[in-house]
Specification:
The protein has 233 residues and is an all-alpha fold. 87% of the residues lie in helices and 0% in strands. The protein starts with a helix and ends with a helix.
């Protein structure tokens, strides 16, 4: 009977910390949405709101890590439970870094506004890539909540599309700078902004890999898609 009580208590703690991760994910998603809006409207006010949320994201990461350390020390989990706690910790770290990328986008938007040439920059393609990255993170969080390995594989494949968008945008931006050297400085801001968007997709991909690690017990980082699909089957 005491063992059942302890197990139920442990499950409750896991559920609580998982909910905190989802809460952090929601906050970071909101940051991304605001950053994309700031980009589409070249709004310094909204960009400032994105930056202001950074302190809360950082504080939540620290709180979740503290709770995870406490659970591991008290419960000494093994096998899948330990993998889940490790994956939660890594997912939390990736979400905090997504928040960093959103803040970087906001910072670059402010820099472009200060340059005085925002409306003439080719930012439409970036907004498409940003929407893709935001959608991918949302899917990754949903898949993590359900520990859905099939959805995780789909996310890993979708990340390639964001990488292609980034590569195509870089080529266009280089051509744009060559045609009008006066736009080199703000265009470089746009390039750093594009890289931040690509990194959001990378963090969503990392979360998808953690899902497979939890469920299958296999580390699929730096492996081919064929190997990953073989593990998930």
């Amino acid at each position: 009977m005491p063992e059942k009580h302890l197990s139920t208590q442990f499950d409750s703690e896991l559920s609580a910390v998982s909910s905190r991760v989802m809460e952090l994910g929601g906050l970071v998603e909101s940051q991304i949405r605001q950053a994309i809006y700031a980009l589409s409207q070249f709004s310094a006010e909204v960009a400032n709101e994105v930056s202001a949320a950074e302190a809360r994201v950082n504080a939540m990461e620290v709180d979740i890590d503290r709770e995870l350390s406490s659970i591991i020390a008290r419960r000494q989990p093994t096998a899948r439970d330990l993998r889940l706690l490790i994956a939660i910790s890594k997912t939390t770290a990736n979400l905090e870094r997504v928040g960093d990328e959103a803040e970087k986008i906001a910072r670059m938007v402010r820099s472009i506004i200060d340059s005085g040439a925002p409306r003439s920059l080719p930012s439409l393609e970036l907004r498409v890539a940003a929407d893709l990255a935001s959608g991918l993170l949302r899917k990754a969080l949903d898949a993590f909540a359900r520990l859905d390995t099939q959805a995780a594989v789909s996310i890993l494949k979708e990340d390639d599309q964001i990488d292609r968008e980034f590569d195509g945008f870089v080529r266009k931006l280089v051509t744009y700078m060559m045609e009008d050297p006066r736009m080199i400085s703000p265009s470089l801001d746009l390039l750093f902004l594009a890289k931040a968007i690509e990194r959001i997709g990378d963090h969503a991909k990392n979360i998808a890999e953690f899902i497979i690690y939890v469920v299958k017990g296999a580390d699929v980082r730096h492996t081919s898609m064929e190997q990953i699909e073989s593990v998930v089957k």
